[in-house]
Amino acid sequence: MIIDVLNGPNLNLLGTRQPEVYGTTTLSDIKRLCTDKAEALGVDLRFSQTNHEGALVDQIHAAGQTASGIVINAGAYTHTSVALHDALASVALPVFEVHLSNIHAREPFRHRSYISPVATGLICGFGPIGYVYALDALVEMLRSTS
Ligand code: DQA
Predict the structure, then answer these.
(1) Catalytic one among 77, 99, 114, 131?
(2) Is 76 near ligand 1, meaning CB less than 6 Å away?
(3) How many of the other CB atoms lie within 10 Å of CB of 56?
(4) Catalytic: 114?
(5) 81 phi-psi bin (left φ>0, alpha ψ -120 to 50, beta other)
(6) Mean pLDDT, to the nearest integer, of 51-55?
(7) Distance 71 CA to ligand 1 centre (A)
(8) Is the dihedral of CA 111, 103, 59, 144 positive or negative?
(9) Alpha carbon of 88 to ligand 1 centroid (Å)
(10) Which of 38, 57, 78, 130 is the most exposed place for a label (fewest CB within 10 A)?
């Protein structure tokens, strides 16, 4: 079972980016958390980050060919991207949307997600551990429905 964890723009700057909002955990730290969780769950993990919307679309298409599910933090594209919405709707995979911060407690422009309507579930506001919760929930769901 392969799970793709996809990360969008500016998440490469975690650790130094607005620490009052996102904390000081780096994306490498989050990757390690996810790798450890995947190992404990006995699944294969692919973890990636890009600042480019089209690259995320390509990664979603690739996941559709080879993965069992997607965990995605699309960063700011969450609030703008019909292309990501359509890409996720086009692959027959469960999608768990993750945000470090509680997007609903922030600026109004963050309250709308183009990902949520095509996601199986949404985890936000728990910081880095939210990725681990998402992996747990996704694998549990995949195993209980297979
Ligand atoms: C984010 C929330 C988004 O609104 C923001 O643009 C990000 C990070 C989060 O993880 O909290 O880049 O997705």
Answers:
(1) 99
(2) yes
(3) 26
(4) no
(5) beta
(6) 98
(7) 14
(8) negative
(9) 18
(10) 57
For 117, the 3-state DSSP assignment is helix
DSSP states of 29-76 as a string? HHHHHHHHHHHHHT-EEEEEE-S-HHHHHHHHHHHHHH-SEEEEE-GG
The tens digit of pLDDT for each residue in 107-138 reads: 999 999 999 999 999 999 999 999 999 999 99
pLDDT at 103 over 80: yes
Q: How many Cα atoms are found within 13 Å in the side-chain-facing hemisphere of 127?
A: 12
Identity of residue 63: A
* Ligand 1 centroid from CA 106, angstroms: 10
Side chain identity at 108, as an amino acid letter?
A: P
Q: Is 100 in the pocket of ligand 1 (CB under 6 A)?
A: yes
Quick one: tokens of 117? 């309507």
